[in-house]
Specification:
single chain; about 325 residues; alpha/beta; Molybdenum Cofactor Biosythetic Enzyme, Chain A; Alpha-Beta Plaits; 2 domains; six-stranded mixed β-sheet; four-stranded antiparallel β-sheet; 11 helices; about 35% helix; FAD diphosphatase activity
Length: about 325
């Protein structure tokens, strides 16, 4: 038995573990800076903007439909974070490196989805490590949680956590994370659910690496929320508000007024939108922003100028037979 354990020890990469008691994510006031072209000056910054990087050949090939970026969009909207960009890229090292460097430099909160499984094409961890000149190291707490919480697969009846094997090597790929020796270990991998061994790896202070499996992506992101709220522009987490107005007028008729309205309110953080509803007799005008009081003060004005009504659902005022007619825009 001792010889088997020695073999396993040699088989595993050097682990990184917290050097002090684990603290909540982002609780440290600042993280030690690194040198180099992608050095981080301060990891703990207010979150105003976000970006999403979907990684996977299967999405680009049409095999899988991406539901994670829409979920992230709603998540960010509910917190008042401006989701500025969503990109889908292949499982290609150069593409991942270029995209994650660019997004990390431009946006406050970056979320990646996909490419952290056990197979040869799951290269997200290694590619993001290269993007920031880091190495991969075994994350011992994640490995221990994996052993404790994972159920043996019925098609691997002889699998043994203490015996080096191709199966063990594949599993280790999922707990070998980018590691920065200049940053507290506990801030580089966050566990947000007691019954999940999967960590959210955090790189360069703002890149959050999540699995592509929708149920895991959604649960981990949702459970990360308490750690994000203190860093929001609005720490109370009131989020962004959307007001919808249903109008019978074509877009061309409301365009002059909406252009003037946008010029007035967009400097105050309110965006004005107009959306045709093809095949319907009513179109939609929207106001989106964080200043609910200001938006409410505009309701009567907007209703009058678009000859419409404030609604909670786009189809709220549709007539029952509104299924065939298409208005010219």
């Amino acid at each position: 038995m001792l010889s088997r354990l020695n073999l396993l020890t040699r088989h595993l990469p050097r682990p990184f573990t917290p050097s002090r008691a684990t603290v909540p994510a982002y609780s440290t006031p600042s993280l030690a800076p690194r040198t180099g072209p992608f050095a981080m000056t301060s990891a703990v910054k207010p979150i105003h903007t976000a970006a999403c990087l979907i990684i996977g050949d299967e999405v680009l090939g049409g095999k899988t439909i991406d539901t994670n970026s829409p979920y992230l969009a709603k998540f960010c909207f509910s917190l008042g974070i401006q989701l500025k960009r969503v990109e889908v890229i292949p499982d290609d090292e150069e593409d991942i490196i270029e995209a994650v460097r660019r997004m990390s430099a431009r946006y406050d909160f970056v979320v990646t989805s996909g490419g952290i499984g056990p197979t040869h094409d799951d290269i997200t961890y290694s590619s993001i490590a290269k993007a920031f000149n880091l190495k991969l190291q075994l994350h011992e707490p994640a490995f221990e949680r994996m052993k404790r919480l994972s159920k043996p697969h019925p098609m691997q009846p002889n699998f043994d956590w203490n015996t080096p094997s191709p199966g063990l090597t594949a599993k280790l790929r999922m707990v070998e994370l980018p590691y920065d020796p200049n940053v507290p270990a506990e801030s580089q991998a966050v566990f947000v659910a007691d019954d999940l061994w999967v960590p959210i790896a955090v790189v360069n202070g703002n890149v959050h690496i999540l699995p592509g499996v929708p149920r895991l992506f959604e649960r981990l992101l949702s459970n990360l929320k308490p750690s994000l709220i203190p860093r929001l522009a609005d720490p109370e987490g009131k989020g962004t508000f959307r007001m919808m107005f249903s109008t019978p007028l074509p877009e061309s008729a409301v365009a002059p007024y909406l252009t003037e309205l946008a010029a007035r309110v967009e400097p105050r953080g309110i965006k004005v939108g107009s959306y045709p509803r093809w095949g319907k007799k009513r179109n939609t005008v929207t106001l989106v922003g964080v200043d609910k009081a200001l938006m409410e003060s505009l309701v009567s004005e907007v209703e009058e100028n678009v000859q419409g009504k404030l609604v909670t659902k786009e189809e709220e005022l549709d007539p029952p037979s509104d299924t065939e007619h298409v208005y010219s825009q």
